From TrEMBL:
Annotated source species: Myriangium duriaei CBS 260.36
Entry similarity comment: Belongs to the TRAFAC class myosin-kinesin ATPase superfamily. Kinesin family.
Any single biological process term in GO: microtubule-based movement
Entry protein name: Kinesin-like protein
Residues of the Kinesin motor domain: 13-479
Coiled coil start-end: 620-650
GO cellular component, one term: microtubule
SMART domains: KISc (SM00129)
Matching InterPro entries: Kinesin-like_fam, Kinesin_motor_CS, Kinesin_motor_dom, Kinesin_motor_dom_sf, P-loop_NTPase
Biased composition (Polar residues): 426-442
Alphabetically ordered keywords of this record: ATP-binding, Coiled coil, Hydrolase, Microtubule, Motor protein, Nucleotide-binding
Amino acid sequence: MTGDYPSRSNAALFDVYLRLRPSYTPGAERFLDVEATQEGDYPTHITIKPPANDHRKRAIEKFEFTKVFQEDAAQLDLFQSTGVPEIIEGVVGKDRGQGRDGLLATLGVTGSGKSHTILGSKTQRGLTQLSLDVLFQSIQSRIVDTSKDDDVLQSLTVSDVSEAQMMTASNFLELTYGDGTASTRASRATSRAATPMMDMSFVSGAGANMRKHMPRLSTLPQYPEVQDIQVDCDTSSQYAVVISMYEVYNDRIFDLLISSSSKSAIQKRRGLLFKSTELSPDRKVVAGLRKIICSSLEEALLVLETGLVERRVAGTGSNAVSSRSHGFFCVEVRKRPERSISCTWKSSSFTIVDLAGSERARSAKTTGSTLAEAGKINESLMYLGQCMQLQSDNSDLSKPSIVPFRQCKLTELLFSNSFPSSSASGNTALSLRNHPHLTNGSSDRRNPQKSVMVVTADPLGDFNATSQILRYSALAREVTVPRVPSVTSSIIAGAHGASVPGKASGRSSPTASSEDLEAALAEIGRLRAELDIVSVRYDEEVRRRREAEASWSAATERCEMIENEVRDEMWGEFEARLEMETRRWRAAAEEESERNDQRMDQKLDILARGIEVQVYEDPAATEDDKVRELEDENERLKRKVEELSREKGLRSPSKKMRVLKTRKWEGSGIGFEGSP
Ligand SMILES: Nc1ncnc2c1ncn2[C@@H]1O[C@H](COP(=O)(O)OP(=O)(O)OP(=O)(O)O)[C@@H](O)[C@H]1O
């Protein structure tokens, strides 16, 4: 026997339990056996051997789990022995303690009993209903009454870090199943403002106007009962229970508490983001969920049933009613000190995950969109398997394994908050060195999440699909090859047995050579066994390589897709900015030219005004001025005449004579002005 995979339980993110389902397939060969243990203990090891018609592998594989639950295990056995009550106690946070998040998930081939384990059946409750029952009966007396106190709803809404729409269960049920008369009132509850509470007749079914499609509490299974199971709570605190539900379908997150019953709503079904928010910068949350405050088990069960109806189911060849999405049911337990209600609410969550079944698309006879769904489911489960297997291979703690959890939404949701320090720094992969179990985290860190994985298997089901899941989920694995005595060694053994002392024929016995032969045959047998082991490992390496190649090509495709998206986005942004800049530039140019025109007009004005100054004419002369001017002129001319006269008198006698003659003539009455 070769112990080639060491136990990883110390470093594991999950405690891994195996549950076998009863199987009634007639004529099917059982390929899985449980190793016996002492009376009263749960077995921890199983072996699987390939069916007789599988000629490729003769090796037997042995797997270790935290516990193995056999076919006769009841729901209550599972509930108690997987430590779910302890998880609930951690979430509740007894003795003023900080709560501790919990995660319960199921993994298995389609039809192996995951939903049966987590959600139960028509007659039996599943681990989810049992958990809710234990939670409410443990804290019921300390739950705040949101129907009487509007401030409570307000304070719960304000303390929520995930941009959620909070409402009370009665408002939610009225909104979902009511006849619309109260919908206005109820829809107001989705806002962040406090709203008036409604009476509880809705839950009790007393309000007649509703409730055609509402699940009836009386039809829900009551068995098994858990009255005698209670967990300790913090007696100095008051509590509120807030429920949300979502599914991961085709790698997108959808709210299950927003009804898509109308066609338009289906078309508009909006994916949600898993991101850090303003109030939660170091921790990723599913943002924008609808969250329902439940103050009783009945309310919580009705909300759960409503979400389950919403969850997408589609029939496939593998299972008539099969989960086609990974379903997440989150119970947030919020608490604050009873005496100082001004304190903010502290919150811890219990998340229950019903994973979609892995299946071989070929064997499931799926086509079209269902085939695409199956592809996405298998891809996400392959990534989950890789994350889990990396832990299983992490034997050497000095070499930290990197958990590549950001490859798909499922692993991101399951793992990113398991390592608070890593997610805070925005790493795209997690190192096991940062695992809270392995480091001394600082005191202000959240308590490490407690996680339980229940692997379900049908021992008479599909060998290949089941063995693949067991390989990556088990805590440890060993491979062995049964020694089948060969014909030759039997003959030799016979011959050797015949050559006993005393029966010698007298001739020298061929003991030495037969011993050599026997040793050689033993060696051949050993080598053959080793060869078988190597060939099993080789097959497995080939499978892992194929998976790695598939994951690589999927990652490459995703990268290309993201690159194209980023390119398109950037191109769009660039064009929009260019357009905006062009418009801005044009507007600026127009403004500039307008300004220039104005400036030119102003210049022309100034110029025109300047010309007017140059052509300025004196105002028209008045009469007096003209008279004065004429008198001046007259005066000037008289002086000139006198001057000329004097000049003439001083010249020749003939000239004098002429003057005298002129005076004579003037004496006749015709003379110059002023003359006698
Ligand atoms: N432990 C069990 N005891 C009795 N019946 C079981 C058990 N496990 C599974 N079954 C039955 O087997 C059928 C298939 O189981 P279930 O729907 O839980 O499978 P599943 O793994 O959730 O499948 P899928 O992944 O397709 O949703 C159901 O009818 C269920 O009641």
